[in-house]
Amino acid sequence: MTLTNRIIPCIDVDLDPTGNAVVYTGINFENLRYTGDPVEMAQKYNQAGADEFVFLDITASSDSRSTMLNAVSNVADELSIPLTVGGGIRTKEDVKNTLRAGADKVSINTAALSRPSLITESSEAFGNQCIVISIDARRRFDEHGDHYAKINGESCWFECTIKGGREGTGIDVVSWVQTAQKLGAGEIFVNSIDADGTKDGYDIPLTKSVCDSVSTPVIASSGCGSPQHMYEVFANAGANAALAASIFHFDEYTITETKEYLQSHGIPIRL
Fold first, then answer.
1. How do residues 179-212 score in pLDDT, each as one tens digit?
2. Residues with a known catalytic role
3. Strand, coil or helix: 252
4. For 2, which DSSP code?
């Protein structure tokens, strides 16, 4: 039986100056602009036929605060599709509290890199299907990596970053995802800092490098500007799911239009 590929809208959530949870959209993890209300957007995508929904608290890690669980709970109440929540999750207790707030999966980045045993602890406690390892990757054209891809004729490796892309780690993405899979990660979520918000397409070399190195399902993120870009990341990189934000948030394409395009181009999809 052929597994269907998934289309996943994502909201980047932060606290506004009055302390309310709001959705922002940016470019290269910066230049954020107000986009909408998390609950209203959850309602929209639940009705639109999305396969899953992702809620990212984009400053919880960098600001050293807890995930906004009240907002998570309010969003979860509006969804009948799986919800993944990321940002500010540092401990097994954080994982438990986020799942109790209504998340089906928890996405971990900075804390897993700092303490990889968190992956095993969490997957053993809650099931590996709940544990998504998020990667904020950036390209590096130097000799400090472990695994290289060719980009425009140059050798490039991909570095894991932390704190919303604000700090490099020196850790090779491919090496890290292989380790994360062994430790119990149930899914890999690949964000590209270089492609984020550009609408120029997913980082195919990055996504393919990850997909080729693990058997764990891979979500491709960052850079989607059209259904064609989703086709490319499915067909050319081997992703299992494609995440997008602005093309859906600003009604450039609907979920239905996107899925019909993909189906017409031979991509297994749930309509």
1. 999 999 999 999 999 998 889 999 999 999 999 9
2. 12, 136
3. coil
4. P
